[in-house]
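During the reporting period the student researcher (J.K.) took over the structure-prediction task from the postdoctoral fellow and processed the backlog of single-chain submissions. One of the processed entries is reproduced below for the supervisory committee.
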Amino acid sequence: MTRNLVRRLVPLTAAALLAAMPAAAQIRGLTLPPSGNNQYSSVTQGIGLVKVTIAYNSPHVHSPTGEDRHGKIWGGLVPFGMANLGFGSCGDQCPWRGGANENTVLTTTHDVLVQGKPLPAGSYGVHFIPGQEEWTIVFSKNSTSWGSFFYDAKEDALRVQAKPEKSDYHEWLSYEFTERSPAKATAALKWEDLQLPFTITVEHPDDLYVENIRRELRTNPGFNYQNWDAAANYTLQNKTHLDDGLRWAEAAAHAPGIGLENFNTLSVLAQLQEANGKTEEARKTMEAALAHSTAGPVEIHLYGRQLLGQKKNEEAMRVFELNAKRHPNVWPVHVGLARGHAALGHTKEALAEAKLAVKQAPDDANRKSLEGMIKTLEEGKSIN
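J.K. obtained the following structure tokens:
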């Protein structure tokens, strides 16, 4: 056996083996439980079209060895102000990571305001500078580091202030969305007996929806007239981008190869014509809608109810009377007449129509509603 062959048969040392391995294989880790058993968690909240996600690892009040640290978290385990963590590159200017292990990361799909200050769409490492009366929340452009050990203030995207509050006890650190609306949500860090709420606001949420609708109508959804009608109705109900709404309503009713004239498309078109100052066109279109074969008793009734909601009581009554002429003694014609008369102050006539309507009620819910209406009218009170 030659010396070269013997040399090839001798086992490689660990160092030599690592040197021979591809770089990616040397740095790839195993999938093991998270450090300190600080489990990964995330929470996502929609704010209109915007999605905000907070991803974090969650430490607990009792240490990995079982020590009860209740009362020792704030100002102890989590120092007030900046701290020296004894490792990394931030020296004595290290904030708290707002969790455990890797960066706590906030991701927003669109630009938002945090505590009233702008934060562009993207992912951010979230750090905190706790204080007894007020905290600073730091959003860093670096969202991929381990903890705060390598925090660099030059990478800050935003800093805001927030006030800590008492909270019910939380053994595990968590982030929750405690309040929400179509344009704003409140996120809160909660751990031990403390919570730190901060608001995330979306400016002009209707603009985002309309922009998204414009884009979607240029794709597969645009080949369906119902989607054009739904888009137009969105602008009408939210009183926004009415010029776009008018174009979409025209397409829903009349676009070649797509549009379809029926009561719904024509009535939405009429309302958007009126909203855009085209009063005479709106009148003619609404007449066509009411005369259309798809204008059944329910459709006409709902249009009359809509007019009542707009305080157009005389016009609503004409619609209810038209419904009665075209669909005599059919549900819910008498309901409409009762409401129309009541809106005009004709209590006697309203009561008579309500009593006719209750006999035609298709289910218990409508029957009970009408019985309540009758009682209210008999007491001489107005109905909504």
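The committee noted the following: Confidence is low (pLDDT under 50) at residues 1-26.
J.K. will present the remaining backlog at the next meeting.
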